Task: structure prediction
Amino acid sequence: MNPEAGQAWFRIAVMLTLTSAVLAFLTRPDSAERVVSVITLVIGLVFIGVIAVLVRRSRL
Result:
């Protein structure tokens, strides 16, 4: 994996995860916004995990 591309995707994933985590914390528990924020948070965490696996795999 190209180091610059990996860095860019990682930054996007971190921004997505942090933003959704803050929004999940600030929204009301019984709102649709909370559900969307939590789903986005899970997607961001999975995205970070996939990027980490790809980076480790490319170093081998």
Notes: Residues 3-59 form one domain. The first helix runs from residue 3 to 26.
